[in-house]
Design goal:
Blueprint (H helix, E strand, L loop, with lengths): L28 E4 L4 E2 L5 E2 L3 E7 L2 E2 L5 E5 L38 E5 L30 H15 L6 E5 L1 H12 L7 E4 L7 H15 L19 H15 L2 H8 L16 H14 L4 H12 L10 H5 L6 E6 L7 H10 L7 E3 L7 H4 L1 H13 L8 E2 L8
Parallel strand pairs: 6-7, 6-8, 8-9, 9-10, 10-11
Antiparallel strand pairs: 1-4, 2-3, 4-7, 5-12
Length: 401
């Protein structure tokens, strides 16, 4: 048997791969939400902090502010290099900066880490009221709850209305919720590779990922954050990532890259791996080193519950609230959030034309990879917006907390 153990280094890992108190802040700032945050379940979540990053300068009246919202395992680091505090480069680095689609000579770009996340914002790995990690006591969150937190962040930053709210995948769900729940604060909308509501197929994929994590003995019912190094739910989180990554890529792309070939030096007939298995192991290993399993469960559950029509008379009636300029796009090879979902969404949004198509062999991940096509659509959306007359001024930062 010559199978390479993808978990050979796991004993060196802390129980949670998320950001820990005392880690370098990088470009992050923090905003503290003073009042307990009201959640859809009726619970009020105390002590909420949101980590965020900004680029460019805010106009005196805040009218040039653009909100960019990340996907499931993303964070606030939309642009910039890897370095202390940031384990990976910016996930949309090609889109943000002087002269780029999100031109920071014109726009003030804000990107928060989502509520429930693990890269600086309040989530399951954060200290709860008693000073220990929330763990299993962290409440269920909905996409609406996450947008409530982001609206509180906008209040802290003094932004009454975003010029645009932009997001892909889970970020697209939140962007859409902004437009439906707070159209008066959403100047324009860009939804990329996201649906109006999670389908049964998408809920199924998410549920088996949650199940993989919860079935790991290291999960400990969600209270693993103080477990010794190597004894967190690493294998469950890694398996969840493998399952997810299959849905993020297209079948033709995986076949063209890997086919049925064995990993060099390994023989599947004798316990070794195929090349595609090694690829999935690689992505699993990367994620467990930078993400928290509790956050993965919390955020996946929120995505499973995404439905802009819930309690609003259905999807069509809910989307009719969003009377604002909107652009919707999907990836033609996306098998997780198929293009048909974006076509339906665009047809129901009052301010949207027909859905735009991102041509890509990479499946759902095309929304991150095809930055030239995505950038062209961002430019199209922003070109129609009136720029603020006031000269940009430095943005006051809330105190670090």
């Amino acid at each position: 048997m010559n199978r390479k153990d993808p978990h050979r280094a796991l004993p060196l890992l802390s129980a949670s791969g998320g950001r820990q108190e005392g880690d370098p802040p990088g470009r992050r700032r923090w905003a503290a939400i003073e009042d307990p945050l009201p959640l859809e379940t009726g619970i009020r979540l105390p002590g909420v902090r949101l980590a965020y990053e900004t680029w460019g300068r805010r106009a005196a009246d805040g009218s040039n502010a653009v909100l960019v919202l990340h996907a499931l395992t993303g964070d606030s680091h939309v642009a910039g290099p890897a370095g202390p505090g940031h384990s990976t480069p910016g996930w949309w680095d090609a889109l943000v900066g002087p002269g780029r689609a999100l031109d920071t000579d014109r726009w003030f770009v804000v990107a928060p880490n989502v509520l429930g996340g693990c890269q600086g914002s309040t989530g399951p790995s954060s200290p709860g009221p008693d000073g220990t990690p929330w763990g299993s006591l962290f409440p269920y969150l909905s996409v609406r709850d996450q947008v409530t937190a982001e609206a509180a962040l906008a209040d802290v930053l003094g932004i009454d209305r975003w010029a645009a709210v932009i997001g892909g995948s889970m970020g697209g769900m939140r962007a859409l919720e902004w437009a439906v729940s707070r159209p008066e604060r959403t100047g324009s909308l860009f939804v990329l590779a996201a649906p109006a509501a999670a389908s049964a197929d998408q809920i199924a994929w998410g549920s088996v990922q949650i199940g993989a994590i919860r079935s790991d003995p290291g999960w400990r019912g969600g209270d693993y954050h103080r477990a010794p190094p190597g004894e967190g739910p690493h294998r469950g989180l890694g398996q969840a990532r493998r399952i997810a990554h299959i849905t993020y890529r297209s079948a033709p792309e995986l076949d063209s890259r890997f086919g049925g070939e064995a990993q060099p030096g390994e023989e599947p007939a004798h316990g070794g791996r195929y090349r595609v298995e090694s690829y999935l192991d690689h992505h699993a290993d990367k994620l467990v080193r930078r993400f928290d399993a509790g956050s993965y469960v919390t955020l996946t559950a929120a995505m499973n519950g995404h439905d802009v029509g819930r309690g609003r008379g259905g999807i069509a009636r809910a989307l009719a609230r969003a009377e604002l300029p909107a652009l919707v796009a999907g990836v033609d090879s996306d098998r997780l959030y198929p293009l048909a979902q974006q076509e339906r969404l665009a047809a129901l949004l009052p301010g949207a034309d027909a859905a735009h198509t991102i041509a890509s062999p990479y499946g759902h991940d095309g929304f991150l990879i095809e930055t030239e096509q995505v950038g062209a659509l961002v430019r199209e959306l922003l070109a129609a917006l009136r720029l603020p007359r006031a000269a940009p001024v430095p943005t006051p930062a809330p105190p670090l907390t």
